[in-house]
Design a protein that fits this description.
Layout: H1 2-35, H2 46-100, H3 107-128
Helix pairs in contact: 2-3
């Protein structure tokens, strides 16, 4: 008879341990669901914590790269615009120089072309700066 009591107690203790483990697992799952996080504390999953920290670091680096790209794109667009404007101004100077080679220009015409070339040259210097 003493043997059956030990067995019954052993079965009860085992069932109680199983129930406590299930309750602990349920509490952990409820905590994960309510927080939206699989890992609440680094001790919950050290390997998962290390992975999460690595991913966070990589994401931060990628975001910085995107900011750098945006900044470089802005500078390139500004430079492209300035170079296009510079090219237009230099073409204008070339056109004026070709016109100045015409023997049909009067002194006033040459003076006007010279003034226009000087003005365009000033614009080129402004763009360059």
């Amino acid at each position: 008879m003493g043997l059956s009591r030990i067995t019954q107690r052993s079965v009860s203790d085992s069932a109680l341990r199983g129930l406590q483990a299930s309750l602990a697992r349920t509490a952990t799952l409820q905590n994960q669901l309510s927080s939206g996080k699989r890992i609440s504390n680094p001790s919950d999953d050290p390997s998962g914590t290390a992975s999460a920290m690595t991913f966070r670091s990589q994401r931060s680096a990628a975001e910085q790269h995107l900011r750098n790209i945006d900044g470089a794109t802005g500078r390139l667009n500004t430079t492209d615009s300035a170079l296009t404007d510079l090219s237009d101004r230099l073409n204008k100077i070339r056109e004026l120089m070709v016109r100045s080679q015409s023997g049909a220009l009067s002194t006033e015409g040459r003076s006007a072309l010279s003034a226009e070339v000087s003005a365009v040259r000033g614009n080129v210097v402004d763009i360059y700066n």
